[in-house]
Structures are given as structure tokens and as C-alpha cells.
TrEMBL record:
Residues 10-82 form the Thioredoxin domain. It comes from Paenibacillus odorifer. SUPFAM superfamilies: Thioredoxin-like. Gene3D superfamilies: Glutaredoxin. This is Thiol reductase thioredoxin. It holds the Pfam family Thioredoxin. Coiled coil: none annotated. The lineage of its organism: Bacteria, Bacillati, Bacillota, Bacilli, Bacillales.
Amino acid sequence: MKEMQEVELLDALKSAGEPLVVFLHTPLCGTCKAAERMLEVAAHLLPAELQMVAGNVNMLPNLVTHYRITSVPALLVVSADRTDDPNIYYSMVSVERVLEYIRGVIS
């Protein structure tokens, strides 16, 4: 997953294009590391055109405020048309649940 800066992420979340999954984390979060591993597995089972990126919330104050991120790890998932605000998913308990959630948003 490519790590993105705040300006890049805000632009990607607003620009129509391919479906987008943004993994929000902090560097010292153990749960974030486990969720990142789940996403790496899930990426192999998702469509190739789905863009998956990451962002350190410590460096994303405007994004965190704008989307009201309450905890990490978190996923922001947006469809290709970007007509709605991103869906935010906090409960990453298994690869299957993460896949189900992402597929539900991008389909």
C-alpha cells in the first residue's frame, strides 16, 4: 500500500476515478499492524483496479476532522463515482469481514 500525504488523500477522495480504499493508522498501533496484514491478504482477492492507499492520521489533521475519524485502524471506502462521502469502517476482525465490507461499497 502506498502511503499518501494529506493533500494527495483529500484530492483522491474527491476525484472520480477508480474505487478507493484508504487505510488510516498510526505507526505504533499494534491493532493497525494486524489490520494492515489483513488488508494485504484482502488486496489479492479484490479487483485489480481498486486502489488501496494508507495514511498516518498523525499527519492528517484536516482529513481526520473533515471525516470525523474517531479511532484507528479505520478504512475509508469510496466508489468510483465519488457521489457520496466515504464509508468508514472500524471493525476489522477478519479478512472475510473486510472483503465483504469493501465489496459492498464498491459494487
